[in-house]
DNA sequence: GTCTATATTATGATAGAC
DNA sequence: GTCTATCATAATATAGAC
């Protein structure tokens, strides 16, 4: 073996190793940020704490995300992108089914996603505590589209007599918090009743109960 | 008129004015603390911010409550004392009525209380984010007693066929979050749907919907 | 009971070496 | 891309004057 001639050393692209490390660092920071923000809220979370959780030096947050606010937005973007994908997958699997089966599948998907990522609901409650730019951004960018689509589906179920009558938006929010808020309170629930929602079967039990309470009717065959 | 003889100047009790001012200061601090803690969580709230909201100098917090933690406990004590009183009043008014009417009255009372004091739910979600001494204290001191009593009442309604079957504790928590969490998210709800839960009639609409969804059955006359 | 002043630590953000 | 060092600010808490 001999050295490669210097002249043939054409300028290579920047080493891919570093790019990969950069991506991993960003992912670690985003995971840590979601955990920290959902535990302590935006104000209650320090960027140092996020960096510590991620096992990363804190100035790297500035490097990768400019500031605390941008990091928060990136973390929330990530969670909603995942969540939308989970819902879309559930909806796709039920493409040809009847509306009640579709909605049931969506409720199941929501319960399971909310259990794996309680930050989804916690961050919402935290930000809805008072008017803020973050809340406006959250609603406009992520929540309203989801909300509008879900309300349309439930309205159909009400017309079919499957879901109970009354204000559709109110009904949707009752369904939503029955899974999201209940799972966000799972530690409290464990403490008061001894029930661990993360034991096998519990999540399906919750989903079944939500379905039987909020979608009590049956679709009549023609 | 003449001066009272010096000898008759028996030592008076400490001036009551100051005691009254002290009580008012404590009340102002407790109100401000509830507001601040529910907006920004325990870690996200500074004692200076609480003092500012109360219009009081910050070292007075140390004077009246020893430290931030004791102030938090005093504020939570206050909210649960009020809440228990509101529930007790509603229960008392329905003393002789049937179980469904009793539970309906309790749900109405809960909805109205949660609307006036959304901190009740917000603080719970914040503290349930991770194990802590504050969470343990909250559960043992305030939540479990309420929880146990409510679950007993709902169990009766399930046996009567008024409430849907299934795990009673799960059902109770669904009812609870349908009012508490929904009202804690009222700003978000306003943003997504344009509905203001604080308009007249909205709270009763929510309570009626909770009752019709979770207590759909009727009590049969003997 | 109330205030000013301050000790100590934590925080967000940046500059500049490597 | 990563690290150390550092700045300016804000936090909890206390000491001591009034």
Offer a concise description of the structure:
Chain A has helices spanning 16-44, 47-54, 59-65, 68-93, 99-116, 119-127, 133-159, 168-184, 186-193, 202-214.
Notes on the protein architecture:
Two copies of one chain form a homodimer. Chain A has 222 residues and is an all-alpha fold. The first copy, chain A, has a single domain (15-214), classed as Tetracycline Repressor, domain 2 (Orthogonal Bundle). Chain A has helices spanning 16-44, 47-54, 59-65, 68-93, 99-116, 119-127, 133-159, 168-184, 186-193, 202-214. In chain A, helix 4 packs parallel to helix 7 (133-159), helix 5 (99-116) crosses helix 10 (202-214) and helix 7 (133-159) crosses helix 8. Chain A is elongated. In chain A, 36% of the residues are buried. Chain A binds a DNA duplex (18 and 18 nucleotides) through residues 18, 21-22, 25, 46-48, 56-63, 67-68.
Beta-strand residue percentage of chain A: under 5%
Range of helix content of chain A: over 70%
Question: Which residues of chain A form runs of ≥5 with pLDDT under 50?
Answer: 1-13
> What is the overall pLDDT average of chain A?
91
Largest sheet properties of chain A: none
In the residues of chain A, how many domains can be counted? 1
Q: Provide the structure class of chain A.
A: mainly alpha
Total of helices of chain A: 10
Spatial extent as radius of gyration of chain A = 22 Å
Label the CATH architecture of chain A: Orthogonal Bundle
Overall 3D shape of chain A: elongated
Q: Biggest protein-protein interface?
A: A-B, 59 and 59 residues
Q: Indicate the CATH topology of chain A.
A: Tetracycline Repressor, domain 2
> Helix-strand pattern of chain A, N to C?
HHHHHHHHHH
């Amino acid at each position: 073996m001999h050295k490669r001639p210097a002249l043939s050393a054409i300028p290579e692209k920047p080493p891919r190793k570093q790019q990969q490390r950069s991506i991993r660092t960003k992912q670690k920071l985003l995971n840590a940020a979601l955990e920290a923000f959902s535990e302590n809220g935006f104000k209650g979370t320090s960027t140092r704490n996020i960096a510590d959780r991620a096992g990363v030096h804190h100035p790297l947050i500035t490097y990768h995300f400019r500031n605390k606010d941008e990091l928060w937005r990136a973390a929330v973007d990530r969670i909603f992108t995942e969540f939308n994908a989970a819902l879309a997958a559930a909806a796709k699997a039920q493409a040809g089914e009847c509306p009640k089966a579709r909605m049931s599948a969506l409720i199941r998907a929501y319960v399971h996603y909310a259990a794996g990522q309680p930050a989804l609901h916690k961050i919402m409650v935290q930000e809805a505590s008072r008017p803020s730019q973050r809340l406006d951004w959250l609603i406009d960018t992520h929540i309203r589209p989801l909300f509008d689509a879900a309300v349309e589906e439930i309205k159909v179920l009400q017309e079919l007599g499957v879901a109970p009558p009354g204000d559709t938006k109110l009904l949707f929010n009752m369904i939503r918090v029955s899974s999201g808020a209940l799972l966000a309170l799972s530690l409290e629930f464990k403490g008061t009743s001894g029930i661990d929602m993360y034991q096998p079967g519990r999540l399906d039990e919750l989903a079944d109960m939500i379905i039987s309470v909020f979608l009590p009717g049956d679709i009549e065959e023609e």
